[in-house]
Write a structure and sequence with these properties.
Blueprint (H helix, E strand, L loop, with lengths): L12 H30 L5 H52 L1 H29 L8 H29 L2 H22 L16 H27 L1 H25 L3 H24 L5 H9 L3 E2 L2 E2 L2 H29 L6 H21 L12 H29 L5 H26 L8 H36 L5
Antiparallel strand pairs: 1-2
Helix pairs in contact: 1-2, 1-3, 1-4, 1-5, 2-3, 2-5, 2-6, 2-7, 2-13, 3-6, 3-12, 3-13, 4-5, 4-10, 4-12, 6-7, 7-13, 8-11, 8-12, 8-13, 8-14, 9-10, 9-14, 10-12, 11-12, 11-14, 12-13
The chain binds glutamine.
């Protein structure tokens, strides 16, 4: 594994292959995610409140399983086999729902949760492996990869929601399954170019022993499907799951930490853990997008952008992905240009900047109240500008975070650490729901104006906390930087 060759070019061709594979996977994932809540209300006849809770639970499970998928990739399967298995589970899950949306829904979702767990963290780890230690192209590479994620998210959200609403739910889930087939085929054809990257860590073992271990992972994953099925059917189990998985993950982390012989690698892992902790806060605020901001868009925004009629929820769903696609390459170029002059801010400062921009964004969301009419309807333009600020903040933190994890983790823990990064997103999603519920107006018969006041009060507070966190990170950055050793 150490003998990773130098992949040439500003953006190595292997990066483009991984970009495409991840694009299809996110197409499938965000396609499914885009229809979830509407489908549950429409077909499973859940109330909106229950659909929201169930949606949050599913999202939390999806990201929580990345931790498990990451560990098994490190120890047994390697990234390539994990990815293939994960893709198959996602295809099967969406295919089953397409076959009978009503009866197979929860079962199919359980499969996609396992599938994403084995897929999502490991493809990001492979991107990291394209670069040698200290390679200045790494952050820019992750910025590009992040664009691929958002091209997929934009197309998936649009296509599957369209198919589901205007044709049938079966077709929407079928589309998700089909794009994942494309992603898998693409991966199978291009994986040879990755060389040793992502190969099994137990390749040296005798064949039967190796096969037995791999089989144990696959069987374990299959056995956990009915358990997940039960847990997502009953939302109260989600709370228990979330109380348990985080501490278990932390204990596992500290055991691995204690096994590290060198102080320098222990320090790097601690630095990663601190930044992962901050990312929980970031995603708890960021993920208002799926909850309170979606409701705000539904209730309080005029359906016109620069004079063109448009559903505010479409803007709420797509503005972020669109801005990522436009700005990720520019920011990638900016980092490279700054690096050439020796002026690129380090990872920790970028994290701080991410929070400052997030704070700015929530001030802009807050300020929509000053543009509202007496009915409480306000400007979609201002709302969109706020999303621009959200996105710039995201670009300072989320792709940088992926890159940072691959820099700070020893090779044999890369999958687990990437899983821990996404586990933070699981908690972010979970907390986002709680914050959103707390901000909503307690009055059942609240007027639109009351709702506007209630949500924007909340946004003002989020702005303040985000700014505070950003300043805190920048102030303690020398300390974290020291833990990170030579990593910038
Ligand atoms: N939008 C990004 C993705 O889908 C980041 C998700 C996350 O880390 N919560 O990969």
């Amino acid at each position: 594994l150490e003998a990773i060759q130098n992949f040439e070019g500003k953006y190595p061709k292997q990066l483009w292959y991984l970009f495409m594979v991840e694009m299809w996977e996110r197409f499938c994932f965000y396609g499914m995610r885009g229809v979830l809540a509407i489908f549950m209300v429409d077909q499973l006849l859940l109330t909106e409140k229950d659909a929201n809770l169930k949606y949050g639970a599913i999202q939390a499970f999806v990201y929580a399983f990345t931790f498990i998928g990451g560990i098994f990739a490190d120890r047994i399967l390697g990234f390539k086999k994990s990815l293939t298995f994960g893709a198959l589970m996602m295809i099967l899950g969406n295919g089953l729902i397409a076959a009978n949306p009503h009866d197979f829904f929860y079962f199919g979702i359980a499969l996609t949760i396992i599938g994403t767990g084995f897929f999502k963290p490991n493809i990001s780890s492979m991107v990291g492996d394209l670069y040698k230690e200290g390679d200045p192209r790494r952050d820019a590479g992750f910025s590009l990869f992040y664009s691929g994620i958002n091209v997929g998210a934009l197309l998936g959200g649009a296509l599957c929601v369209y198919l589901g609403k205007s044709h049938s739910w079966s077709l929407a889930f079928l589309a998700a399954a089909v794009v994942m087939v494309i992603g898998l085929v693409m991966f199978l054809f291009t994986k040879k170019y990755l060389g040793p990257i992502g190969n099994s860590p137990i390749a040296h073992m005798p064949e039967t022993k190796k096969r037995m271990r791999e089989a144990a992972v696959y069987i374990g994953a299959l056995i956990s499907i009915p358990l997940i099925f039960i847990m997502i059917r009953n939302t109260q189990y989600t709370d228990i799951f979330m109380y348990v998985i985080g501490p278990v993950a932390l204990i596992y982390f500290f055991i691995q930490l204690a096994k590290q012989k060198e102080k320098a690698s222990r320090n790097k892992l601690i630095a990663a853990l601190i930044l992962i902790f901050f990312s929980i806060i970031f995603f708890a605020f960021f993920e208002q997008a799926g909850g309170s901001l979606a409701l705000f868009a539904n209730n309080n925004l005029q359906a016109s952008l620069l004079g063109i009629g448009i559903d505010p929820n479409i803007v709420n769903n797509s503005a972020n992905s669109l801005f990522v696609i436009i700005f990720a390459p520019l920011i990638g170029i900016l980092w490279i240009a700054l690096a050439r002059r020796g002026k690129e801010p380090n990872t920790v400062i970028k994290f701080g900047l991410g929070f400052l921009l997030l704070g700015l964004a929530y001030y802009i969301f807050f300020s929509t109240r000053f543009f509202a009419n007496e009915q409480g309807i306000t400007s979609l333009e201002i709302f969109t500008v706020a999303y621009l600020a959200v996105t710039l903040g995201e670009l300072c933190l989320s792709p940088i975070g992926l890159s940072m994890i691959t820099k700070l983790s020893p090779k044999n823990l890369a999958g687990m650490m990437m899983g821990l990064w996404f586990l933070a997103s699981a908690y972010g999603q979970y907390v986002a729901g709680l914050i959103g519920a707390g901000m909503s107006s307690p009055n059942a018969d609240a007027s639109l104006l009351d709702k506007l006041i209630s949500y924007t009060n909340g946004y003002q507070q989020l702005a303040l906390y985000a700014l505070g966190t950003g300043i805190l990170i920048i102030v303690i950055s020398p300390f974290i930087r020291k833990l990170m050793q030579e990593v910038k």
